[in-house]
From TrEMBL:
Region (Domain III): 152-202
Region Domain I, residue ranges: 1-64
Matches recorded under CDD domains: UBA_RuvA_C
NCBIfam families documented for this protein: ruvA
HAMAP family: DNA_HJ_migration_RuvA
Domain notes: Has three domains with a flexible linker between the domains II and III and assumes an 'L' shape. Domain III is highly mobile and contacts RuvB.
Cellular component annotations (GO), alphabetically ordered: cytoplasm; Holliday junction helicase complex; Holliday junction resolvase complex
SMART domains according to UniProt: HhH1
Record keywords, A-Z: Cytoplasm, DNA damage, DNA recombination, DNA repair, DNA-binding
Stated name of the protein: Holliday junction branch migration complex subunit RuvA
Organism (species): Candidatus Faecalibacterium gallistercoris
InterPro entries: DNA_helicase_Holl-junc_RuvA_I (IPR013849), Hlx-hairpin-Hlx_DNA-bd_motif (IPR003583), NA-bd_OB-fold (IPR012340), RuvA (IPR000085), RuvA_2-like (IPR010994), RuvA_C (IPR011114), RuvA_C_sf (IPR036267)
Subunit structure: Homotetramer. Forms an RuvA(8)-RuvB(12)-Holliday junction (HJ) complex. HJ DNA is sandwiched between 2 RuvA tetramers; dsDNA enters through RuvA and exits via RuvB. An RuvB hexamer assembles on each DNA strand where it exits the tetramer. Each RuvB hexamer is contacted by two RuvA subunits (via domain III) on 2 adjacent RuvB subunits; this complex drives branch migration. In the full resolvosome a probable DNA-RuvA(4)-RuvB(12)-RuvC(2) complex forms which resolves the HJ.
Helix-hairpin-helix DNA-binding motif class domain segment(s): 73-92, 108-127
Length: 202
């Protein structure tokens, strides 16, 4: 398996990047957001990759982060979600938004992606709900935080950040979300407000 590629970018388009490693140019199809964020030709870059081998094709897919790479694998494990649809979803949704939509049963969020109709959107939520729940096993700890906040004082924010990290968010994402919220609030309220903010106000 090719886990990642680091080298000079030879070319990039709206949905692909060609990167030179050891004298070989690898063409990786990417979500539109990833291709746009990569530096231009001649610059050094890194792509986290997924190699897809089928009866008639061998394709390489590239991502800016390991979170996107893992989310792509998760999405394409759903029946009816091929690589093209997986890329389309990640072009309009970041991994944390995917996990949040699945956890909340918000299948309509996936319809924003090209090639995802109502039935497929519902199937994505149905098939991934248990997997996302297992991945966020730390969410159970939220129930234990309810009595902590009153005595926690300034520690409330760090408790909330730890809980968000256990739910799959990065330390920086959690810190940014928490920074906008009154640290004097109960920990469980800080978490709820942070999740709502990261979900676009839901």
């Amino acid at each position: 398996m090719i886990y990642c590629l680091s080298g000079k970018i030879i070319k990039k388009t709206l949905d692909s990047v060609v990167i030179s490693c050891g004298g070989v140019g690898y063409c990786a199809q990417c979500p539109a957001s990833v291709a746009a964020a990569m530096p231009g030709a001649g610059a050094e870059g890194t792509l986290y990759t997924v190699l897809n081998v089928s009866e008639n094709d061998v394709s390489l897919y590239g991502f800016a982060t390991e979170e996107q790479q893992n989310c792509f694998r998760l999405l394409t494990g759903v029946s009816g979600v091929g690589p093209k649809v997986g890329l389309a979803i990640l072009s309009v949704m970041e991994p944390d938004r995917v996990y949040l939509a699945v956890s909340a049963g918000d299948h309509k969020a996936f319809k924003a992606a090209s090639g995802v109709g109502p039935k497929l959107a519902q199937r994505i939520v149905l098939e991934l709900k248990d997997k996302v729940a297992k991945g966020a096993a730390g969410a159970a700890a939220l129930e234990d935080l309810s009595g902590v906040s009153a005595a926690a004082g300034g520690a409330g924010s760090s408790q909330a950040i730890a809980a968000l990290v256990s739910l799959g968010y990065s330390q920086s994402e959690a810190a940014v979300a928490i920074a906008k919220i009154d640290p004097a609030l109960p920990v469980e309220e800080i978490i709820r407000l942070a999740l709502r903010g990261m979900a676009g106000g839901r």
